[in-house]
């Protein structure tokens, strides 16, 4: 399998970085990481990135999707071949925004990724999981959200050091903020009713 010049990884769940690096190191000659704070930067450094980019936080209440403009501005100057996100609700929403802003092909829920003759080929489920399709991506940039368990986590090297850079926050036209979280009262009814316990979230904002 041939390799791309560079692969970038980002996750709104820090626990998924090891798996993302496990794939990115196979697909790219150089791997770059985008993280949300300095603690995450230190956590992913042992995975061997070439450089770590720390997103500048504007508001503790903001959602992951609000970083789309900031990441797009960064990637326009770096010209990566592929970006890998984990398959999560917030990550998929961010990937969709970036796909539009960067005019990049997007494959969600990829179950396999190969580099064949310099082209990215991603496999994903279709027809409710009854079949698989392989997409050959021809755009200069591919954004892929990976299904869990697609790649083995990479090994870590605590001696690895790399530079870190701060990515300025670029505000979207409409920010999405989590204004409030309230615990729902547990129901004293049957099993079906008891399953409704969880969190209620109040949102403001709209699509960028």
Would you kindly provide a brief summary of this structure?
With 208 residues, the protein is α/β, with parallel strands linked by helices. It contains five helices and eleven strands.
Furnish the topology, listing elements before pairings:
Blueprint lengths: L3 E7 L6 H11 E8 L2 H7 L6 E5 L12 H11 L3 E5 L2 H13 L3 E12 L2 E8 L4 E7 L4 E5 L17 E4 L9 E7 L7 H4 L4 E6 L4
Parallel strand pairs: 1-2, 1-4, 2-3, 3-9, 4-8, 5-8
Antiparallel strand pairs: 5-6, 6-7, 10-11
Protein name: Putative electron transfer flavoprotein subunit alpha
Pfam families: ETF
GO molecular function: electron transfer activity; flavin adenine dinucleotide binding
pLDDT < 50 stretches: 192-208
Q: CATH class of the largest domain, anyone?
A: Alpha Beta
Instruction: Based on the coordinates given, report the CATH architecture of the largest domain.
Output: 3-Layer(aba) Sandwich
Compute the number of strand runs.
11
Strand order of the largest sheet: 7-6-5-8-4-1-2-3-9
User: In oligomeric terms, what are we looking at?
Assistant: single chain
CATH topology of the largest domain: Rossmann fold
Number of helical segments?
Answer: 5
Largest sheet: 9 strands, mixed
Shape: globular
Number of domains: 2
Distance between the termini: 38 Å
Secondary structure: helix percent: 10-25%
| Secondary-structure-derived class | alpha/beta
- Cα radius of gyration in angstroms: 18 Å
- Please report which band the strand proportion falls in: under 5%, 5-15%, 15-25%, 25-35%, 35-45% or over 45%: 35-45%
* H/E element sequence: EHEHEHEHEEEEEEHE
Provide the CATH superfamily of the largest domain: HUPs
Average of per-residue pLDDT values: 85
